[in-house]
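B., you asked whether I could sanity-check this one before it goes into the benchmark set. Here's the sequence:
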Amino acid sequence: MNSFQRSFAVAGAFLSLGILACDQSKAELDQTKAQLQAVTAERDALKTQVGALQGQVTTLTKQLSDANASLAAAQAPKPAAEASHTVSHHSARPTGSSSTAGTETSKPPEPTPQQVEQKAAEQKMTGRSSMNN
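And here's what the prediction gave me:
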């Protein structure tokens, strides 16, 4: 019987260690669950922020597109009939020496007040300007 008691004592010791190990595992599990809850809450908050920022980007992109369309409309070139007249006029110029050969310079027209205002709005939205005036 002595060996039976010894076996029983050894089994009891292993059982005690097993219970203690489970208690430590339970504490670690509880701690991990708490961390998971905290990380999940943080993730949800970040997802909300991303959604709000995506909405702002969409709004600002539309505003920029509208401003660029307005700017392009204000800077639209002359109608095709006038442009072809100007081109044909220059190509029909005589090649000999002329008293007006060196006096014609093509300067871009001065921007209108509306163009200046649009340029200022574009600079405010983007921090830079696409016009080279």
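One thing to flag: The mean pLDDT is 77. Otherwise nothing jumped out at me.
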